[in-house]
Structures are given as C-alpha cells and as structure tokens.
Amino acid sequence: MLRNICRYQRQFGQVIWPFSFPQGHHGPNLSTQLQKAKYSSALTERKKFYENVSISQGEGGVFEINLDKRKLKTPGGKLFTVPNEALAIAVATEWDVQKDTLKFYTMHLTTLCNTALDNPTQRTEEQIISAALKFLDTDTICYRVEEPPGLVELQRNEWDPVMNWIEQRYNVVIGSSSNIMGPQIPEETKDTFRQHLNSYNFWALTGLEYVITQLKSLVLSFGLIDRHLSVEQAVLLSRLEEEFQIQHWGNVESAHDYDMYELRARTAAGAMFVYLSSESTAVKRKILQD
What we know:
Structural class: alpha+beta
Number of domains: 2
Keywords: Chaperone, Membrane, Mitochondrion, Mitochondrion inner membrane, Transit peptide
Helix content: 40-55%
Number of strands: 6
CATH superfamily of the largest domain: ATP12 ATPase
Protein name: ATP synthase mitochondrial F1 complex assembly factor 2
CATH topology of the largest domain: ATP12-like fold
Function: Plays a role in the assembly of the F1 component of the mitochondrial ATP synthase (ATPase).
Largest sheet: 4 strands, antiparallel
GO biological process, one term: mitochondrial proton-transporting ATP synthase complex assembly
Radius of gyration: 21 Å
Mean pLDDT: 83
Strand content: 5-15%
Distance between the termini: 14 Å
Subcellular location: Mitochondrion inner membrane
Shape: globular
Order of helices and strands: HHEEEEEHEHHHHHHHHHH
C-alpha cells in the first residue's frame, strides 16, 4: 500500500472544476426520505467515465477527490471531502483501480465516506454508540452451544482467550452463556464501553459500527481495532460454527470462498476507515518518499 501511496502522491494535486455526481442528484437540500431512497437504490455498477484520478486540498484543510476535471460528490449532492490526506489517497486508490466498469460494491471506503458525509439516517454520535452497544447483548462469541462436543470444545478453545483478553483489557465482566437469552451483561460493562466509544469521532464511529455489523460482535471488533486480532482471525472467529459445519459436512467451495473473501474485504476496509479517520495529521511527504 505504501508503494501505491507514494505513486499517488507524485501524480495528484491539481485543482479541477466541480461537477455533480452521481448524475441526476437533486442537490444538497435533498430531503432525508429521498436520501434514504437514493442510498437503498444506488447503482452497483456503472460504465467508467473518467481516466485520471487526483486529490487536492480544499478550504479548511479537507481533501477532495477529482475524476478528470470533475470533483466527486456524494449521493446526497455534497462535495466529497475527507478530513486528511491519508484517507483521501486510500479513497482515490479505490477509484483508480476500477477497470472499464465501476463496481461500487467493492468501493467500501468510498461508501463509508458517503455515509459519514451525508448521514442519510441523520444519526448523532450517541445514537451510533447505542446501536453498537446493542450488539453486546447478542455478541457472536457470547453464545455457546451445548452440543456437539467438538463444537463446544472449539468455541471454548478459540473464543475464551479473546473473551479473557477483552475483560482484562477493559477491566470488565462479560461472560458467556448457552441460554438463548444470552449472558446478563452488567451495566458497568456497558458504561465502560460507552465511555471508550465516546473517544472516537463521528467518522471513526461510522467505520467501527460497520465492522461490528460485519462480525456481529463488539468483542471481536474491539480485538481487531486494538490490533489484538488480525482481519483473518477476526473473520474466522466470527464464522466459527459455520467453519465447523463445513469441515464436517463439506461446502460449495466457490460460494464459501467468495463469502469469506467478501467478509474479509469489508472488515478490513472498515478497520482501515477507523484508523484513517482517527488520523489527525496529513501524510508527510518525507515519509512517503522514504
């Protein structure tokens, strides 16, 4: 990735005239209801309409994405701007690697930026935090089976170390249960996690909630963002029961592999978005040139 960043830093920079993207948007005063409809019916593919991608710094220190002589805009009609150079370069890379057809469903960073900029559901940081904390009540690794014995042992061996880590890391109690109602999470634990989530800005929270949604686990997501787990480990742990069944009963290989790679891609993009959205300084040219 560093090689790509270096290459983009050399090529990007010129300021180009604005344009409206996607075509047919209804302007920045679009109602919330229409914004929701636009997001839910967004095109998944489109013929590529540009040749060159560049970034430029706009007013207030934000960075913009330029497609030939046109500035990128959000589905809601806002100028597409990101808070720092590192995130701008990462988004520009998504646009640059597209071939003849734009596959928007592969452009996860762009989608997350659009969500943060347009905020189509008009949520506050507190609402995002509350939504993220709800996953704790149904967290993937809090629910344990009672049979078969092989899966019981697998869950204990693979999930317990992660549970022990997060309880020690944040000085909380979570626990696990085989009851359909799940474990009773103490309010003190939720308050600790709420305080931790409050340390993230709106953009980072958008990315973190995306990761939690992919993994269906706040515990695994914290493990990933805190660099205790790799993307591959977090995804595998989130699919432990499915992987166990596949080992015993087999699977449609191509479908399984596609689902696994897609989940890894979305999870990795979400984690990168959190990291880059938390970056407060621009990428240093000297570092890029080293």
